[in-house]
Amino acid sequence: MYQKYSIVCFSLLLGGCSTLSADDDFDDAISEVNQKYNYVSIVAKKITPEDVTVGGSNTLKNTTYVIANYAKNDKKTPTSFAKVQLSYFKNYDEFTHVAFNGANYPIEAYKVSSTSCTEHCSVTQYFTFPLDNNVIDNSAKTGFVYTVQTANNSNELSFSIPSGYFQAIKNEQSMYLDIDQQSQAIHKAQQKADSKPVEMSKYWFDEATVAEQEQFTEWAFANRKSISTQLKSDSKSVEMLSYWYEKASTEDRAQILTWLLNK
After folding, report:
1. Distance CA 259, CA 177 (A)
2. Are 136 and 81 in contact (CB under 8 A)?
3. What's the whole-model pTM score?
4. Of 151, 120, 139, nearest in space to 47 by CA
5. What are the pLDDT digits (tens) for 116-147?
6. Which of 82, 119, 173, 262 has the fewest CB atoms within 10 Å, measured from its CB?
């Protein structure tokens, strides 16, 4: 029931897909969020990690991003993972595993490696490696360093991603799971009559144009806990929507947001 919201509204709430750098502030670090029946999948934007290889490296380019999957209930959910595109000068074997937090994990190619030669030859590897959600949680505090290694450990490259990148994932997780918990609570009480703010918000939303509905939806989710910005419009429908939403209690707002998710 959340799929339509994912398609229609996330383009409004989330930023573009430009690659982040290690010195960004990560206020806009999430690319998309996908709601599933039993879990929420948060896709962070691509980031260029800091190359922290001891003694320097032959790295030409590295883009990494994280897909974090969080359970809504006790059912099994897909493992979170990092996805990497790594280019380097071809002067040693391809990498086969990644190491972090004292453990090694085999990398899994999602695309065949490519080679390019001009004056020098370079290799690009495309791979993923698993990330336990506890690692994501800890990385939100301390940052994350991972090292890619060849089969015989003769060569390795190390990269660092700041804590703010993972904190952005945690912030997004908190928001969406909080909304889902509120949704479940409201679903149990759905036989109760709508309050006046909820009733009037539904009425004026249906009276609004598609553009006005999108404008209100973006504003309502941004102000889900408290009204921090005013919704300005010359439209009567938008004016009444903002009026009744501001009149709504915290429970009423959660009910309105749930209703929007189900539209």
Report:
1. 16
2. no
3. 0.63
4. 139
5. 998 889 999 999 999 999 999 999 999 999 99
6. 119
